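Quick one: structure tokens for this chain, please?
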Amino acid sequence: MRRRKTLIGLDIGTRSVKAVEMSWASGAPVITGFGYAPLPSPQAVPETVLRVLQESSFHTREVVTSVSGKSVIVRYLTMLKMSREDLKSAIKFEADKYIPFDVEDVILDCHPFDSDGIGDLADNETRVLLVACKRAVIDEQMRILAEVGLQPVAVDVDVFALGNAFETAVRRPGSAPTVTALVDIGASKTSVNLVRNNTSLFTREIHTGGEAITQAVASRLALHDSEAEVLKCNPGGEAERLRHAVAPAVDDLAAEVRLSFEYFENQFEMGIDEVLLSGGGSRLGGLEDDLGRIFGRPTLTWDPTGDLPIASGSVNVEALHERIPELAVAVGLAARIRKDAR
């Protein structure tokens, strides 16, 4: 297989398109490209992606993109140990037990993984990650990429891209294993990935996000959505009014996330040590403190670019830093270069 040296991670969200290019240089990943553009409507995806490509300096047309939403199903299974080839054959017969779609209408993928000693497994058993996505969704992604002249290398899932970004950007040599909750608050959904030792132990996608908070602000303070969005990120002297306006929506979101935490802790008898926030919704003033109080755990907004070097000659570093919280998925997609370049 040809070793790639550069990849673009393309995150097509509900309200924006983000692209991060990563190259492999001197045995390490380097950010060599970045682009961002607001997405006015779902119909405008091709021209918005094209705008991102044209307005930024990228060095490749090879891209990794992702899927999410109700057309994507993720399941963690316990199966008998077998070869990779036998597993792929067996999963075709097992999949209809776990996915609510006709197996003929989906694309399946599965991976055995090290569960890090979590869960009761017999000697002849292993944990298997099953992912299914409606074929029509993948086909539409491929059509858009071809239309704008991009060459797809892989299609990932948003929630796993979060884990890849965390593994790439956050290094904790010698530290004790911790369970980290990665919570990415997008416009219309919130992705949760619980990781330990760079292994994803539990994922969930919650179908609410920053838009619900924006609408709460607009409704309670009699603002247009655009005004409410600006106020969310820059409350100024309105911080206290904003906090009261968003409280019900934040409480609803937190309740859903906390359900995921409680399920995980009851299922695996293991606590969650920290919560790291990302996504455009994490820009809300005071959100770290509010969620930290509700979750009862250290809660911070993290930088998915971490200590990764940035090629300032080809990247608008100031523009990238303005969008840091929104780049976790795109960084995680581009981080596949760590695997492909070796």
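The first strand starts at residue 6 and ends at 12.
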